[in-house]
Amino acid sequence: MRYKINIEYDGTNLVGWQRQEVGESVQQDLEEALFAFSHQKALMTAAGRTDAGVHALAQVAHFDATLNMDLYHIREAFNAKLREKNAPVNVIEVEQVSPDFNARFSALKRSYIYRILNRRAPSVLLENRVWHVNYPLDVQKMIEGAKYLIGYHDFSSFRGAGCQAKSPLKTLDKLEITKEGDEIIFKTEAKSFLYHQVRNMVGTLKMVGDGHLTPQDVEKILKLKKRAEAGVTAPACGLYFAKVTY
User: Fold this and answer.
1) Is 154 a catalytic residue?
2) Residue from 109, 92, 90, 89 nearest 6 by CA
3) Both 120 and 222 in a single domain?
4) 17-35, pLDDT tens digit by residue?
5) HSE-up (13 A, CA, CB side) for residue 42
6) CA atoms within 13 A of residue 40's CA, in its CB half-sphere
7) Residue 103 lies in a domain
């Protein structure tokens, strides 16, 4: 049977979704938890392979196994074993799906959230969960700059080194920026993203907000198609994998 699981995790001390030779990953934690309660080995395939330090509110994965348990007890078994190993991972929901469902390739859209804490004082409660920028940012200018990124473009200027995508051409469906108290929230949505694309867009728009770039510079950077022309890569700690639409 094929199962779909919704997962949340704190990526602070993880090497990301994918198994690595060194370090703890989400994939490893889930596969080991499954084996611990079922004695079955299965490959976990995720909708998005998040990087080290990136969090998830609603990551989705699938796996194949023969489990003689109802969905409620599968979820409870996962979480019991994850707690035993002190993994910063929780399974929120388990569903049985058709054999042709694929968490990665069946996805129609993926959504990310990025959080900037924009105030002088840091936060002990939000440490490793936001990018702390301790000087004022002009949110309206950042909104103006973001408009140039919406739509179908060559995003080479926002493509991280080591990106394995065959093409830099992507359609960005949404990039909304709002101010909520001391936080600046970026909400972005697309069928798929290039490696580090969201963090590179946020880093560039932050430089618009602090006056190093103008909103119109974003359009110029996009057209130049060179990573070196864009802004810094925003830290992983502020990024959240938020939603998958199937």
Assistant:
1) no
2) 92
3) yes
4) 999 999 999 999 999 999 9
5) 23
6) 14
7) no
